[in-house]
Specification:
The complex is a heterodimer of chains A (653) and B (422). Chain A is an alpha+beta fold and 653 residues long. Helices cover 54% and strands 8% of the residues of chain A. In chain A, strand 5 and strand 6 (570-575) form a beta hairpin. Classes of the chains: A alpha+beta (653), B alpha+beta (422).
Chain lengths: 653, 422
């Protein structure tokens, strides 16, 4: 726009003054003009700077009043990028809101509920989550997915970053990466792109710790060993490997494996190394995987099979499966009798064209991969990291939970289902005596699957999703929560037949909550359940609540085990298929993924906090302890947490 | 605010209310922020009667509020009067079309003058309205009420026969509209017998009228004690799209004639207080045809335009004129001389010309034009983030202000054709 900035600032000032003068109830009539003038200013050279001069007044004047941005303390960093991508008003208000936060962070405005530190933390997290916009054009995918507002958004983020310390931002980024990698997801695309973005930060002045941790992650995906640092090009690296002495080769192996074990991430060079080893020096494979005793024994026992798997499935494009391979050997999965023939079948499986296309889409063009290789690599990952299975962006937590459960306890079942889906385009289950074929079904929870999934999920989820939905439909009118029958039928006999839910399915009311809590304690809490140990994962339903404790919806997780944490407190360790387990559930209930005795892929909560979000669980009716013995104060504690969060949306009777 | 505990049980109200009756509450019938602002500025104690949805907002901002569903009519309707009376309300101001008869009924009870309600009903039934005007000798087109498609076909045929059309001639159009909807809501021009078939059963009964030639304009007359205290003339460029205030000199020239006609209308309809918004057609020889009249806040941002051009708040004017206790002096002090205006204020309501809107495109020369004041058009948000935003109309309006009515007309015509959304 050709208007002069001074004129625009004046127009903005007028609009702001009109809003300031307006009675509190009438602010909305004058906000529009402020947004309009702000939008004009944003399009000028130093518009952001100009707007920032006013940012400390925004809140008192009423710029955000009565809208979603009204309460700064409720804003959530992950939602920022969505608003910025939306065109029009949401984008403008979002930018004004960021400027408000910056004013708070810089001490220009004292907010009653958000301190300067909190504001800075908020902005750091926003930036950490949007590094692709802070450093535009740094990634291929950013270019492909480029959005119209991106230029302006980048400007906004760069403006904010110029006022904040890069070190703090890096710290946030590193902790975000650590948090994600601690869960050891199979799908690492998101975290890899965060790490790539983090590279840009190395250019600025960072403190030692931040620089080091960032470097660790960068090396983990780009090459952590002496030789891989030296030779980025894989073919040169490969020929150099062949020239190394046994000694040098071993240190190469150790460096690679150490990085993998530390971060759960691998680099393409690692695949090259493993391929060379399997042909030339298979004795070094245990070093390249840093196998423990059990892993080594398993490798020794199945040397031929492992060599074959490496040959077929471990390529630079599928290097992440190396981590799965290592863990698979340590879990001893190959010793389970159906696994070896099951894997062999996959290598030569005649894959349906559409499945083939879907699988090939998971790697870049020109990698020279076959769909079978991708599928086998995917199976290795799943068998090695059953808790690393994620639902991606799909509402298919049940299917993910099934894949994870079978990978843990019934690899044979999983290896039956995969060829059925990939080769026959059909999976059949028997439900209460009647066969259900996925090929006859439509719909499901995710009729349009978001395909950022691991290969196994990519093949199975469309079928499992439809079957689960069909089972639920069949029991919908029984006047009881259908999961009672569907879960054992769907997941298999590993699920106990006893079932309890807190919601009355006919009325939607909360009925006998204390009885529900008592039963859960008596069947699950070691102090009350006569020491029955949980053997198979227990698929349970939980209420998902947001940071304010407000009910967002229902979610499926599996309890893995219940044990004391390092501080001697009983915790529920569970698997959350959303792969972002450490969300804040409000009321200071924040599932942790590390530091409280979690094993890789688990997240955990203190027993009572978990119980407060539970709405349905299975139990073995023959393994009940002493429900009457659960102390009332424990029940009251749980009930209070429940009532003051999701319970507010329910009627209690 | 001392009035925010309205919803309490009557038992607790008894004692407080004696005192609260004193302030002489104005009941604003319909939820309108500018009207609430006006009442606040006038320092009048007031209560808002609006759809129950607004209750929480009113509560948040300490606005005295009575939730009411204007579309529900039953033996419980009397409750509204009782509630308001108990609060100390003495006067009701209608803000929207469907509030007019409610305000009429309330004022009839407040002033103990049952006929006020009947008068308000005249304004809510376009058939009755026309008939009343005709009886009073006001020039109207030919009109009839239709109950079926056959009625419409017959009317179309007879009107054109009267116009001496013979087979093969192009028919003169007729217009049909619902009896009780605001402005151009549901209005349809019918040119051929085939057009009649577009009408659905639920469109009936409706009002049919012959086509009136001439320039269309509206008036906003502020009436107190049966006398027009201020008359604004709004020039329409295109009904429902663009208009400006005050009218251009060629139309303002006819002001004496128009003033006379409006006073005649006020007398005929026995309107005593408040604002009326009649629409007329004027032919080049100065003949006025009455279109219709409403007794509420007009559409088309006309009140905003009046404020811009004349410098007084039309919302305040409406409240003042609705109150029998407002004095002559107050009104004389309040209203300016109609010839005393500060430039022409116009607006263009933007409707996308396409079915699917993707992006907003505002030409630079529009924003740089000295007449350009502001607009509230935003790029339509896309994707999931479609949050409620704190303003009402979704496509938006462009406001102009300048000293030349011809240039104003040119701008409004020019940009009405423009594709702001693509």
């Amino acid at each position: 726009m050709a208007q002069r900035t001074e004129d625009l600032v004046e127009r903005f000032t007028h609009a702001l003054q009109a809003l300031e003068k307006a009675a509190p109830f009438a602010k909305s009539r004058y906000q529009t003009d402020v947004y309009q003038e702000a939008n004009r200013l944003l399009r000028t050279e130093d518009g952001l700077e100009q707007l920032f001069h006013f940012a400390h007044q925004f809140e008192d004047i009423g710029v955000f009043q009565d809208g979603p941005w009204e309460n700064a303390e409720n804003l959530q960093p992950p939602l920022v990028s969505g608003s910025l991508k939306a065109k029009g008003v949401p984008m403008i208000i979002e930018i004004l809101s960021e400027l408000r936060m910056l004013a708070i962070a810089k001490g220009a405005y004292t907010h009653p509920k958000v301190s300067a530190d909190m504001a800075e933390e908020f902005l750091n997290e926003v930036l950490a989550l949007n590094l692709n916009l802070l450093f535009p054009d740094a990634s291929e995918s950013a270019r492909i997915e480029k959005h119209e507002n991106d230029d302006l958004t980048s400007e906004v983020f760069q403006f904010i970053a110029s006022y904040l310390s890069t070190n703090a931002l890096t710290k946030t980024l590193v902790s975000e990466i650590t948090r994600i990698t601690a869960q050891r997801p199979i799908m690492i695309k998101r975290v890899v792109s965060m790490i790539r973005m983090g590279k840009e930060m190395l250019k600025s002045d960072l403190e030692y710790d931040e620089r080091e941790s960032l470097l660790t992650y960068i090396e983990a995906i780009e090459g952590p060993s002496p030789l891989s640092k030296q030779y980025r090009d894989l073919s040169i690296y490969r020929s150099r490997l062949r020239e190394l002495s046994q000694q040098e080769l071993r240190s190469e192996c150790v460096a690679m494996a150490a990085s993998m074990r530390k971060t759960g991430l691998t680099c393409p060079h690692h695949a090259t190394l493993l391929r060379v080893l399997s042909k030339k020096v298979p004795t070094l494979i245990p070093y390249a995987l840093q196998l423990n005793g059990k892993g080594k024994a398993n490798l020794e026992e199945h040397q031929d099979m492992v060599t074959q798997l490496i040959k077929v499935a471990i390529f630079p494009a599928t290097c992440q499966s190396i981590y799965g391979l290592a863990l698979m050997l340590e879990r001893g999965v190959l010793s389970s009798s159906p696994v070896m023939p099951g894997l062999r079948r996959l290598i030569e499986l005649d894959i349906l064209p559409d499945v083939r296309t879907a699988l090939l889409k998971t790697v870049r063009n020109g990698e020279g991969m076959t769909a079978n290789s991708i599928l086998v690599a995917g199976v290795i990952s799943v068998l090695g990291q059953p808790l690393g299975v994620g639902q991606g962006f799909n509402p298919t937590c049940q299917a993910a939970r099934g894949i994870s459960l079978w990978a843990q306890h019934a690899p044979g079942v999983l290896l039956e289902l995969i060829p059925r889906a990939a080769r026959d385009g059909d999976i059949d289950f028997t439900f209460e005596g009647l066969p259900i074929h996925s090929k006859d079904l439509t719909g499901g929870l995710a009729p349009e699957l978001h395909t950022e999934l691991d290969p196994v999920s990519l093949v199975l989820v469309p079928h499992l999703d439809r079957i689960y939905s069909e089972m639920m439909t069949k029991v919908a009118l029984r006047g009881e929560d259908g999961h009672r029958w569907v879960n054992p039928a769907f997941y298999g006999d590993w699920v106990s037949k006893g079932f309890s839910t807190v919601i009355d399915p006919l009325t939607g009311f909360i009925n006998d909550f204390s009885g529900f809590v008592r039963l859960f304690y008596a069947t699950h809490h070691p102090d009350y359940n006569d020491d029955y140990e949980l053997i198979y994962p227990n698929p349970v339903g939980i209420f998902i609540t947001n940071v304010r404790g407000k009910l967002l919806g229902f979610h499926a997780v599996s309890i893995i085990r219940i044990a004391k944490d390092p501080s001697d407190q009983y915790r529920v360790y569970f698997y959350n298929p959303n792969n972002d387990s450490s969300q804040n559930w409000g009321q200071n209930i924040e599932p942790s993924v590390m530091g409280n005795g979690e094993q890789e892929g688990e997240c955990s909560l203190p027993f009572h906090e978990f119980t407060s979000r539970l709405y349905a669980f299975h139990y073995n009716p023959y393994e009940q302890g002493d429900a009457y013995a659960v102390e009332p104060h424990l029940i009251n504690q749980v009930q209070q947490l429940a009532k003051e969060s999701w319970g507010e949306d329910h009627t209690w009777v | 605010m001392e009035l925010d505990q309205l919803e309490r049980e009557s038992s607790t109200q008894e004692t407080d209310l004696k005192e609260k009756t004193k302030p002489y509450l104005t009941a604003l019938i319909g939820w309108s922020l500018p009207a609430i602002e006006a009442a606040t500025r006038l320092n009048r104690p007031f209560v808002v009667v609006g759809p129950p949805d607004f209750e929480s907002y009113a509560e948040k901002h300490d606005i005295a509020f009575v939730g009411w569903d204007f579309h529900k009519l039953n033996e419980g309707s009397d409750l509204l009067y009782k509630k308001l009376k108990a609060l100390g309300a003495e006067l009701a101001v209608p803000l929207y079309e469907e509030c007019v008869e409610w305000a009429g009924a309330l004022n009839a009870r407040f002033r103990e003058e049952p006929r006020i309600f009947n008068r308000s009903l005249l304004l809510r039934d376009k058939g009755m309205m026309k008939r009343k005007a005709q009886i009073a000798g006001i020039k109207v087109g030919v009109f009839e009420e239709a109950r079926s498609i056959e009625d419409v076909k017959w009317f179309l045929k007879r009107v054109n026969e009267a116009l001496l059309k013979i087979d093969g001639d192009v028919y003169d159009p007729i217009h049909v509209k619902p009896l009780d909807k605001a402005g151009s809501v549901g209005h349809l021009a019918i040119n051929t017998v085939e057009d009649v078939e577009k009408l659905q059963d639920q469109d009936f009964p409706l009002l049919m009228e012959s086509h009136l030639d001439g320039q269309e304009f509206s008036c906003e007359a502020f009436v107190h004690k049966g006398k027009v205290r201020f008359l604004n003339i709004t020039e329409y460029i295109r009904l429902g799209y663009s208009n400006f205030v005050p009218a251009s000199p060629s139309l303002e020239e006819k002001r004496p004639l128009i003033e006379k006609a409006v006073q005649q209308l006020v007398d005929a309809f026995e309107i005593e207080y408040g604002v009326i918004h009649p629409e007329y057609f004027i032919t080049p020889d100065g003949t006025l045809h009455f279109g219709e009249v409403a007794a509420r806040v007009p559409g088309g941002h006309i009140f905003d335009l009046i404020e811009k051009a004349y410098g007084f708040s039309a919302y305040e004017a409406q409240i003042l004129c609705s109150d029998p206790n407002t004095t002559n002096e107050e009104l004389e002090l309040f209203f300016p001389n109609p010839s005393d205006f500060e430039g022409y204020a116009g607006c263009l309501m933007v409707h996308p010309h396409t079915d699917y809107v993707k992006e907003l495109n505002i030409p630079e020369e529009l924003e740089e034009h000295p007449f350009f004041e502001k607009h509230d058009l935003f790029t339509p948000p896309q994707g999931k983030v479609a949050e409620r935003i704190g303003f009402g109309n979704h496509y938006g309006t462009i406001f102009f202000h300048g000293d030349d009515s011809e240039e104003m007309r040119r701008l409004l015509q020019l940009y009405e054709e423009y594709n702001f959304y693509r």
